[in-house]
Specification:
The protein is an alpha+beta fold. The chain contains 7 helices and 4 strands. The chain has helices at about 15-25, 30-35, 40-45, 60-75, 95-120, 125-135, 135-145, and strands at about 10-15, 50, 80-85, 90-95. The model has no long low-confidence stretch (mean pLDDT about 95).
């Protein structure tokens, strides 16, 4: 299904320790729906899809499709990151490099999130700042230059 989405030619899946530290905690929803820094927005999008834990197989694939369809309706494009609660991460992109960039940036964001949580909690970017950065022409140029 994911490879049938517009502008998705590559899909990656890992079980990142840093990302799973969050996905195995009650803070997974915050990590999926908020952003910490501009590069995370550029590489991972304005938010991620979060799939509640489901055993791998047909049920999980149906959940991924359903939640991805909701994201498509809301945002008009495929998500760059799908987070699987208590499991791992999927990244999507036009190129293998885009998938790798989203994967590495999600890992970086997870490490920062965990560190910030240990120091009293993360300070998220405001929705207005996230939207402004996501819609900046220079950031769109950078995404094209990076083939994201």
């Amino acid at each position: 299904y994911l490879l049938s989405l517009e502008d998705v030619y590559f899909v990656g899946h890992t079980h990142s320790i840093s990302v799973n530290q969050i996905l195995c905690s009650p803070l997974a929803g915050q990590f999926a729906t908020h952003r910490l820094f501009p590069d995370e927005i550029v590489c991972c999008g304005v938010r991620s899809v979060l799939i509640p834990y489901t055993d791998p197989g047909l049920t999980l694939s149906k959940s991924i499709r359903s939640e991805t369809d909701l994201f498509l309706k809301e945002h008009g494009c495929a998500p760059r990151v799908i987070l699987l609660e208590n499991h791992g991460i999927i990244t999507l992109g036009k190129t293998a490099g885009a998938v790798k960039a989203a994967m590495l940036m999600a890992q970086k964001a997870a490490e920062i999130f965990v560190g910030a949580a240990a120091l009293g909690g993360p300070t998220f970017m405001s929705p207005e700042d996230v939207s402004r950065i996501a819609n900046r022409n220079d950031e769109h140029y950078r995404q094209r230059a990076l083939k994201l």
